[in-house]
Amino acid sequence: MKRDSRLSSVLHALLHMAEHDGRMTSDALAQCLGTNPVVVRRTMGLLRKQGLVDSDRGPSGGWRITADLDKVTLRQLHEALGEPAFFAIGHRQETPECLVEQAVNAALDDAFGEAEALLLKRFAHVTLADLAKDFARRHRERKAAKD
Amino acid sequence: MKRDSRLSSVLHALLHMAEHDGRMTSDALAQCLGTNPVVVRRTMGLLRKQGLVDSDRGPSGGWRITADLDKVTLRQLHEALGEPAFFAIGHRQETPECLVEQAVNAALDDAFGEAEALLLKRFAHVTLADLAKDFARRHRERKAAKD
DNA sequence: GCTTCATGTAACTTCATATGTTACGATTCG
DNA sequence: CGAATCGTAACATATGAAGTTACATGAAGC
To answer: Which residues form a coiled coil (chains A, B) (predicted)?
Structure first.
């Protein structure tokens, strides 16, 4: 199954932007992500609607984070992307007449509902600042390993 | 994203088989599920490999459960289907050189890993017998509502 | 103003994959 | 032998993320 990697993408982009002074163009971000600038604009546009970033046109234009790193959570980003489905496994029919299928759906909803609640809770706790801190740690470690 | 509904399908099929004396044909199961008999054979074939069901050809042939209902767990069925991915959200790149992407992957792996562990634990606890019991309860309730 | 650099966005293509369908061979029962 | 049934390959369809092309819009600098 093809997985939605937009959350991964925007996190990657936002952290690069956080490490970078001034604006970054769609082209530069696309290079960081190994993708196409139009894809960047499309995806970042969703974050702009939530006021997390802004963009400017023309020379010296590009993208910039407008929110506090320690205020932006994975949950918010997931919402900004339109709350894509977490799970790749689902029902065959949403509102079945058949009682057998109802029992099956109930059992699956139970398990997946619990897992989703856990994910949402975790997502609400993790901020961009947390990721930036982890990145900085990895950066120090790599540097130390070189010396 | 298109979700894999095979787990839902096999549960539905197995419960119908459990309620039914003797073998059920792929055609009959396909009608229960609202799908095609070839899809049924394809999917049930995976369960046969694990010894959960068997099939006979010719007239009076069809499918039959060979395992104990209270021994078969959702976990086993998920395994029999080849352990399809639980999540529809993933990394953009599996083993990135970029430290930013490594930090992103680590954070996502953390959250999704925990959710997956929870799901596997739940799946290991739920048996076909549990579902059959829940179905019977729904059946009684519908009957009571009619009277 | 003109040129250049950048975003905004529509339209289209590509790719992956679950699901559905057709076709036909193999096996079993009566 | 003939009908019923599974086994399986090959092909078709559908969906949605991701990538691409094309062009319009707007801003900065000369």
So the answer is: none
Provide, in whole angstroms, the distance separating residue B73's CA from nucleotide C22's C1'. 35
A vs B: CB pairs below 8 A? 181
pLDDT at B1: 61
Contact residues, chain A, for B5 at CB < 8 Å: 89-92
pLDDT value for A1:
59
- C-alpha to C-alpha distance for A15 and A38, rounded to whole angstroms: 19
Here the ipTM equals 0.89
Which of B5, B8, B116 would best serve as a mutation to test chain A binding (most A beta carbons within 10 A)? Answer: B8
What pLDDT score was predicted for residue A27? 95
Domains and CATH numbers, chain B: 6-146 (1.10.10.10)
CB of A114 within 7 Å of some strand C atom: no
Tell me how far CA of residue B2 lies from CA of A4, A88, A117, B108, in angstroms. Answer: 11, 7, 22, 21
CA closest to C26 C1', residue = B57
